[in-house]
């Protein structure tokens, strides 16, 4: 079992004919994902190695029954692409694009709120359910099927921690890269809720970083609603206040959003927090033993 | 930058004249009615506390204050311009801010009748004194939002404050700001409400919509090394340790900083080389990091996902060929084609390169090389 | 009115010149290149089928067609102006409409490549040929909506049609229209896409935002009785029976029409006197209804909720004192203070007033009075 | 029992200091409704016969715990008043105001969609749960407590039909005047769903009129989801196409929205449809016998 993506995923790729779009589409298909369509305005009727291209997501949904979208559209058009997918009735939108203006994302967030479309990202590596489906740019090779769920704000820390887990022989049910932007779709709480309900997940690793209060709110959620063990990791103990550390969202503002506060919030609700990615894997191993 | 944007959106501010010498400051003070506030023009905070803001009771007073600023500088920075502002007769001081609230994904407007306080402190200790009004990004700021906000102020300040808030919201949206803060927002004795001091943060991701803002920003000096990194699309932040850090991905780099600290050393910088990690990007990254004289060792931490470690290894060698290095460079390659990458580095037998198999090992080696202990 | 609004919002339409005599129609046709389409200018439908639109192959042709229109009128209405429009070389005909979709509470945009068809029929029989795109009122029309709509057209028409649709949506929102329909939308042989004929419905509730539209509308004649009712804030619709109907509340009046029909008679009008039903409103209502020569009896059906029936009864008597009446007036009063109201009418003993205890009874009495049967 | 309004209703009146606002507020309070606050910008601190007036709905909610709002604000400001109530966390908004532009209501509709605030109206007479609470302008005197639910697009037909029911000794659980505007809040389907769940309701009367397809969609809902008996009434058999009959929403467009089609749709799913208000009451009596 898994969350978000799996054997029922029927993927349409928005921006399929771009270099990155084509590359990762084919990679995802090679992994076993059911890629049914692509969308590039003005290129309807063409195909990308057999994958039919449409002018609109609505047309792709009509013709192929796509239920999941992956977005590789450049930042100026990416927010619009998310709206298009939602209006076309797509259930899950995974937006890889980095650099979307926060104002555009705020509008997207307001529009999706209360609706049926779930957004992952933007500025995220995507979602993989090892052995089932890969929607995004997480390298399938480092993952292994198993029963640990993982959700992370950072992309490379997904890789690093999955790598450490796989090396210890611990597989994953689903790995969710939620992205590092201030305004994003699915977060820790929604992911934890899905993992809690997923019979294929025994433990959840959540990987946070400085900035915002996602981790603090997730900790409250863990204490109130999560029965499965949670292992945490927070990056950015050494980050100085007021400096953006790569991700637009990774910034300590005044006394808020520090790594120490986040780690403490998680520990206070009984989650184990590793101080290095290596320690995270050891904690998972111990919790599962 | 705040004042320029305020002027553009019609937010009332004190009249001000930029002066480049003491005589001009004196003349400006005369134009402003004989008294003024003289402020150094530098893009760093704490101006009010460090003697960077002086009340002048006469043109001669202003000339003296400006003269001292020009000759002494401010916090080790040279001062070439001062702002001579009118002295406004303040009746009361308030605070307002509009921002993109990441915890809701929407806008948040805040106001309090208590000026000059620490807003975080106020929110913690007396939340009822801070009016917080969420604003839906699709609806925008409505009259009832404004009414709710200004309701926290004394009645005679409400209309003026409402006008300011509407203009600030327009600025927030139209300029792609993520924060517009006015502290203090003041009620003058004549009943006008104006923004006395302000802070505006613009969303970097939206700068393409605002080429004019890029220009405004370019007018303020930033660290030349940071500028170079930025021009190359690299995320670089100067820190105060001695281990230069290069990694791919913001989270991994932050994590590397932490692990180095646990190993007993301190990072000299944050540098995210991004997804590709081509030879070119690696060369620029190395140049940027090595240009910092504090750096005694460099740690390159790459997790190959999409990035292939063999190509990264070749990139590092090519970069070192172009850049040269006086300090040891610890390289950790993991993930896709890591073994191949390590083999390439081993075979190259470069005198400065120290290979490490894991992130933890790399951090410990780097710490040893700069003489740090083994704390982790 | 559609064409004026289209011009204001830049929607491309054929060039047109208004002519008030045959000579002007001839000259206009000359100006338009020697051929034209001459259209009567009246605010009723079915113009194309009733000889109200004539193709003219020469200025003389146009003069003849216009002359005939001016002398013969159109469907019993006098014609004082004709529109002389350029003959455009049509390659293909399409259809588009944007409207407020009451079943979703949002906007709906529709387009089909099949021009000149009955759109309801098409939606029923071949829904796949009619592209329907819902548009969220807060998001507005986005590029993907337009792409989805125009995708149903041949490629060479898409760009032009997209431009038209964007302008139509702007018109829809800015002018508070509830419907903007273009039928046909045509692709010209030169590749341009223009609106050949159109229909625009404006939301009455929003006319205060558009005083200019009220003027535009005022330029077209409406029935003077309807105009008088409208000026008094009364909802009046002329029908073709002989029982004048006055009631309070749209639903109750509609229901009264139905019950009268079931009693074997036909209503002469719909008139909703509204909530208050003051003597003034009642007087105007009676005047309006009685000014219709077809009316042989009047039925006043009031359910007193907030409205008090005693006041209504007094209003009716006062109104009759001012207006006078040649026909019988059946009055049904029910609800708040109904007995008191009935007593007042009984005591007044007015020769024309016939009291009825229930709505059903009132309808039957009215039907009898106009000589209708007892069908219900 | 009842739906929407009842003993838990704590009412704030927006536009309380207007003539209509004051009149109906006091009437509602006299009926037994718990009127806790009023809102009129600029009149904070005043009171209307002991009911405190606030500047904003948010302040009224903070100070009094109001959970329901009734709106008597003029049409130019009424849509904004609905948004204000929703943003203040009000559960139920009853908007009496007539003449709100449809565009404004379309925006309100889009904003409320998926949120927690339920809207009744605009251009409606409100909601009454006889003997419990009255929020709006339906005269309490004509109603009687009982077990028949009623929902109507027309206000005066609420009065007429309630009157006919009460005369036969048939009381009502709740009467909902949903209003006659094209874009409105709660409709037949939502009302039927609430009545279906309400243990205090045995039968539902739905009063429709020409225009739109609310009744047709309600009929489908009745056949799929409603187990309680439904009695219908449709006004406007005599209405000619293309003419607006009073209500902005009451207009037959082309072949759509006729009274005959609506009555037939209801009858086809087993609902009894009365041809006069009097017959409706008889059908209810027969169904309950």
What order do the helices and strands come in, and which of them pair?
The complex is a heterotetramer, with two copies of chain A (289 residues) and two copies of chain B (376 residues).
Chain A: E1 10-14, H1 19-31, E2 34-39, E3 47-48, E4 51-54, H2 57-64, E5 68-71, H3 75-87, E6 92-95, H4 102-112, E7 118-120, E8 126-129, E9 133-136, E10 145-152, H5 155-167, E11 172-177, H6 188-197, E12 203-209, H7 214-225, E13 230-235, H8 259-268, E14 272-274, H9 277-288
Parallel strand pairs in A: 1-2, 1-5, 2-4, 5-6, 6-7, 10-11, 10-12, 12-13, 13-14
Antiparallel strand pairs in A: 3-4, 8-9, 8-11
Chain B: H1 2-8, E1 16-19, H2 22-31, E2 36-40, E3 53-56, H3 59-72, E4 82-85, E5 90-101, E6 106-112, H4 119-125, E7 130-135, H5 143-150, H6 155-174, E8 177-188, E9 193-195, E10 198-202, H7 211-218, H8 224-231, E11 235-238, E12 243-247, H9 250-262, E13 269-272, H10 279-290, E14 297-304, H11 309-323, E15 329-335, H12 338-348, E16 353-356, H13 359-369
Parallel strand pairs in B: 12-14, 14-15, 15-16
Antiparallel strand pairs in B: 1-4, 2-3, 2-4, 5-6, 5-8, 6-7, 8-9, 8-10, 11-13
Helix pairs in contact in B: 2-3, 5-6, 9-13, 10-11, 11-12
By CATH, the architecture of the largest domain in chain B is named: 3-Layer(aba) Sandwich
Basic shape of chain B: elongated
| Portion in helices of chain B | 25-40%
Distance N terminus to C terminus of chain B? Answer: 44 Å
- Average pLDDT number of chain B: 88
């Amino acid at each position: 079992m898994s969350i978000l993506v799996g054997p029922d995923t029927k993927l349409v790729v928005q921006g399929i004919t771009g270099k990155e779009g084509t590359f990762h589409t084919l990679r995802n298909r090679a992994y076993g994902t059911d890629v049914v369509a692509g969308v590039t305005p003005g290129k309807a009727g063409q195909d990308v190695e057999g994958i039919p291209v449409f002018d609109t997501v609505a047309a792709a949904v009509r013709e192929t029954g796509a239920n999941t979208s992956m977005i590789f559209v450049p930042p100026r058009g990416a927010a619009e692409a998310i709206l298009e997918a939602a209006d076309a009735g797509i259930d899950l939108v995974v937006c890889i694009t980095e650099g979307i203006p926060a104002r555009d994302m705020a509008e997207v967030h307001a529009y999706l709120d209360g609706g049926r479309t779930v957004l992952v990202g933007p500025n995220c590596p995507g979602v993989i359910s090892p052995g089932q489906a890969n929607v995004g740019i997480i390298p399938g090779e480092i993952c292994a099927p198993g029963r640990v769920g993982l959700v992370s704000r950072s992309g490379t820390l997904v890789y690093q921690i999955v790598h450490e887990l796989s090396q210890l022989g611990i597989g994953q049910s689903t790995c969710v890269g939620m992205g590092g932007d201030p305004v994003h779709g699915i977060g820790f709480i929604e992911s934890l809720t899905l993992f809690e309900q997923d019979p294929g997940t025994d433990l959840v690793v959540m990987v946070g970083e400085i900035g915002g209060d996602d981790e603090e709110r997730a900790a409250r959620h863990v204490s109130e609603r999560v029965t499965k063990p949670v292992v945490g990791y927070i990056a950015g103990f050494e980050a100085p206040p007021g400096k953006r550390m790569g991700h637009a969202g990774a910034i300590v503002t005044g006394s808020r959003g520090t790594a120490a506060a986040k780690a403490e919030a998680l520990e206070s609700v009984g989650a184990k927090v590793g101080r290095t990615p290596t320690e995270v894997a050891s904690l998972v191993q111990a919790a599962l033993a | 930058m705040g004042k320029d944007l305020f002027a553009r959106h019609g937010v009332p501010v004190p009249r001000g004249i930029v002066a480049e010498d003491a005589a001009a400051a004196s003349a400006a003070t005369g134009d402003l009615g004989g008294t003024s506030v003289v402020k150094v023009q530098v893009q760093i905070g704490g101006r009010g506390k460090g003697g960077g803001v002086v009340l002048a009771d006469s043109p001669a007073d202003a000339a003296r204050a400006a003269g001292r600023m020009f000759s002494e500088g401010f916090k080790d920075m040279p001062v070439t311009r001062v702002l001579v502002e009118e002295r406004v007769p303040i009746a009361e001081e308030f605070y307002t801010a509009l921002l993109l609230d990441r915890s809701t994904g929407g806008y948040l407007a805040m106001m309090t009748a208590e000026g000059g306080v620490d807003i975080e402190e106020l929110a913690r200790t007396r939340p009822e004194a801070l009016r917080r009004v969420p604003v839906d990004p699709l609806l925008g700021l409505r009259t009832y939002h404004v009414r709710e906000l200004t309701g926290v102020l004394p009645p005679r300040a409400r209309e003026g404050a409402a006008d300011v808030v509407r203009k600030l919201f327009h600025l927030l949206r139209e300029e792609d700001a993520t924060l517009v803060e006015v502290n203090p927002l003041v009620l003058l004795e004549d009943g006008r409400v104006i923004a006395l001091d302000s802070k505006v943060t613009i969303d970097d991701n939206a700068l393409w919509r605002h080429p004019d803002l890029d220009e405004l920003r370019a007018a303020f000096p930033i660290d030349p090394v940071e500028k170079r990194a930025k021009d190359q699309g690299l995320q670089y932040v100067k820190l105060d340790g001695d281990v230069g850090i290069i990694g791919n991905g913001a989270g991994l780099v932050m994590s590397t900083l932490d692990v180095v600290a646990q190993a007993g050393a301190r990072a000299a910088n944050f540098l995210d080389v991004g997804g590709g990690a081509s030879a070119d990007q690696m060369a620029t990254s190395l140049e940027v990091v090595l240009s910092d004289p504090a750096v005694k060792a460099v740690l390159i931490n790459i997790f190959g996902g999409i990035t292939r470690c063999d190509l990264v290894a070749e990139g590092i060698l090519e970069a070192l060929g172009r850049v040269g290095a006086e300090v040891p460079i610890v390289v950790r390659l993991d993930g896709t084609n890591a073994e191949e990458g390590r083999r390439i580095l081993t075979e190259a037998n470069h005198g400065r390169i120290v290979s490490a198999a894991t992130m933890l090992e790399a951090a410990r080696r780097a710490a040893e090389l700069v003489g740090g202990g083994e704390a982790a």
